[in-house]
């Protein structure tokens, strides 16, 4: 963060100093919303949530070293009082971004793969200049400005992940830190119930390319028609990535090894190089191409791009983390979140990595699918039930469509002589992540493979952590 006196922060946020706050006291960062993350020189932003009110932790934050609290009501500590802490946080980040004209902002959006692509791209930009990027999926109206506020005068690249929960959300995020490069990965079915259709999702994702200046670059997926159509919505130069010949940055001769890791030739207008990913799942190819296309526009040589992509490992937790237990059981922890598209990709990876082995899955009903929820969750059940599993566990509420779909697919696979291991497919419905781990532990034998994936609210990473013998985080 660029150091700022409290008086300047109050001016930027249209706030008023309170609680004997010293207007000359300097905030050096970090800006945090959790009092446990406070460090000397911090600014603690107090949010009132459904279960916890950050204002109650104001004094604790100052005792831990915070210079002051950004709050929406008086607190027992030095503070900047504002009408709305979320709006004030955005205003503070907007002012900070505007004071860094030498920093190139790169926005990444899409229905799936944002975090992996952001992590890959941040690795690439770090080769050519100091880079900031969000930890995990800090991609909404709170996480986005918090990430921007990590930048300082040395920052040359901000790689930002932008999420949309409705029309207009991405537009608002781009106002905080206007992007010069915008990467759109795909238009899928995540949050389908909120938007009402894929066309509306495309409209929301396209707000990123609409925000680009004429001197900017829109990096678009040539293999997704709804993304490719966004070329007409931007003034910026357009570069395409994908697998087809029309893509300027493309993957050729893609192969998948026994662990589900892809290798391919990265083809660019100025040459080609071999990429051998350490990331799991064929869908990592598209994420890698998107990061490569943006990096290429920044001037990185193709050999350097290929080298960095080949060395990259997951930076954000619970996204295709593959761990082998001492007894040979392989746990695929992809539990951070799920939608119909990412579920299909995960089961595809399970099929490859688990070839010739007993395969199990722990899943949960998908959410935010609106009127299509019953059918899409039944489709999820059919996907799981026909995946050649030796056992399936469905955790949490609203599981009936998933279970019905799974039972139906398993019966169909048996009647057609399909790959349902060891006769009938055991399908269990459990209450939560801990119950899933307890149930699955009785099924697993050395050498088995298990996929764990579900919506964020289910917290299925706990299942993986229990299976691996660690304490849930």
What does this structure look like?
The protein has 473 residues and is α/β, with parallel strands linked by helices. It has helices spanning 6-13, 58-63, 85-98, 114-125, 143-148, 169-176, 192-195, 198-205, 207-210, 225-228, 284-297, 302-311, 340-353, 373-385, 400-415, 433-441, 461-467, and strands spanning 4-5, 16-18, 26-27, 31-32, 43-45, 68-71, 79-81, 104-109, 131-132, 157-161, 181-184, 217-221, 237-242, 249-256, 261-268, 271-280, 321-324, 330-333, 359-364, 391-395, 427-430, 449-452. The strands form four sheets. Strands 9-10-8-11-12-13-14-15-16 form a nine-stranded mixed sheet. Strands 17-18-22-19-20-21 form a six-stranded mixed sheet, sandwiched between helices. Strands 2-7-6-5-4 form a five-stranded mixed sheet. A hairpin with a 5-residue loop joins strand 17 (321-324) and strand 18. It is globular and about 75 Å long.
Q: In terms of topology, how is this protein built?
A:
Layout: E1 4-5, H1 6-13, E2 16-18, E3 26-27, E4 31-32, E5 43-45, H2 58-63, E6 68-71, E7 79-81, H3 85-98, E8 104-109, H4 114-125, E9 131-132, H5 143-148, E10 157-161, H6 169-176, E11 181-184, H7 192-195, H8 198-205, H9 207-210, E12 217-221, H10 225-228, E13 237-242, E14 249-256, E15 261-268, E16 271-280, H11 284-297, H12 302-311, E17 321-324, E18 330-333, H13 340-353, E19 359-364, H14 373-385, E20 391-395, H15 400-415, E21 427-430, H16 433-441, E22 449-452, H17 461-467
User: What is the helix tally?
Assistant: 17
Strand count, sense and closure of the main sheet?
A: 9 strands, mixed
* Class by alpha and beta content: alpha/beta
Distance between the termini: 28 Å
The neighbouring-strand order within the major sheet is 9-10-8-11-12-13-14-15-16
Rg on CA atoms, Å: 24 Å
Shape verdict: globular
Q: Give the beta-strand count.
A: 22
- Which regions are unreliable across 5 or more consecutive residues at pLDDT < 50? 417-423
Helix content: 25-40%
